[in-house]
Design brief:
Layout lengths: L1 E9 L2 E6 L2 E6 L2 H5 L9 E5 L4 E5 L5 E2 L4 E2 L3 E7 L7 H13 L3 E7 L10 H11 L2 E4 L5 H11 L3 E5 L6 H8 L10 E2 L4 E2 L7 E5 L2 E5 L21 H6 L17 H7 L5 H16 L5
Parallel strand pairs: 8-9, 8-11, 9-10, 11-15
Antiparallel strand pairs: 1-2, 1-4, 2-3, 4-5, 6-7, 12-13, 14-15
Length: 288
């Protein structure tokens, strides 16, 4: 029996990495009987001779879409242009990542296409003030690429973001041997074509990195109206100072979070997104 990590899942077969070797294994029948579905990122016990998975170790976290487990950090890629920078969509990604207790890093791509009228520097300051690391990248910015590459070491990282923002382009720039397919932007829709069709972990700089399919929508299924505030670092910071226990920072009096917004310590658009997401969660229909 040996121990490894699933780096790819294809039609009932699982590629398991152990050291420098990859073993293509099948799942055992007991997985089906116990309704266990091995995921990319799972740490597994397997038989390297018979090429069978034997067991799946307990996960630290998992995502449903894309299906991947045991993630240490998420690099959320948003583009400055084509598609246009979208703070609301970025905040949706950040909430879902924070909800899974995954450390997020923001990468704003396509800096070489930014014109003077597009104030990306302003957004960078706001998100850094909120507590996030923000990296501005373009194909020729070696310093930024080195910083992103350094983040990968000894970690399992998921690359997330809307279609067409340059996730695969970023990974190709970091390790050209990957030859990941990249796509053009649909001019009529302003969004990218889906060029990544499956989840796969690649070895980069001593870590494992997943390029994931792009998304056009993100649901808040794992987030409640109570837990949402925990997914905004700057709200999380001021929430303990609220007058009333259980304050959700909407209509309650003597709310420290609303006061922080008035004082300029929490940026207004971030709070507006929080309220928008809160009402969306409160108004969602139960699923059975």
């Amino acid at each position: 029996m040996a121990r490894g990590i699933i780096i790819q899942s294809l039609s009932g077969f699982y590629d398991v990495l152990m050291g420098e070797e990859v073993y293509r294994c099948r799942g055992r029948g007991l997985f089906r009987n116990k309704k266990i579905s091995p995921l990319v990122g799972d740490v597994v016990q397997f038989d390297p001779e018979q090429r069978y998975l034997l067991s799946v170790e307990e996960r630290s976290n998992e995502l449903i879409r894309p299906p991947i487990a045991n993630i240490d950090q998420a690099i959320v890629v948003v583009s400055a242009v084509e598609p246009k920078f979208n703070s609301r969509l970025l905040d949706r990604f950040l909430v879902l990542i924070e909800a899974k207790m995954i450390n997020p890093v923001i990468v704003i791509s396509k800096q070489d296409r930014v014109t003077a009228s597009e104030d990306i520097a302003k957004y960078r300051r706001i998100y850094e003030q909120a507590g996030y690391e923000v990296i501005l990248t373009d194909p020729g910015n070696e310093e930024a690429l080195i910083r992103v590459k350094d983040l990968f070491k000894s970690k399992t990282t998921v690359i997330a973001g809307q279609s067409g923002v340059g996730k695969s382009t970023l990974l190709n720039a970091l390790q050209s041997s990957l030859f990941l397919e990249t796509g053009e932007i649909s001019r009529s829709l302003g969004r990218g074509k889906h060029t990544t069709r499956r989840v796969e972990l690649f070895s980069i700089n001593g870590g494992l990195v997943a390029d994931t399919p792009g998304f056009s929508s993100l649901d808040f299924d794992p987030v409640t109206s109570v837990s949402l505030a925990e997914c905004f670092p700057e709200i999380r910071e001021y929430a303990p100072d609220c007058k009333f226990r259980g304050c959700i920072h909407d209509r309650e009096p003597k709310c420290a979070v609303k006061q922080a917004v008035e004082d300029g310590n929490i940026h207004e658009f971030r709070y507006d997104h929080y309220i928008e997401f809160l009402h969306e969660i409160q108004n969602r229909k139960p699923r059975y």
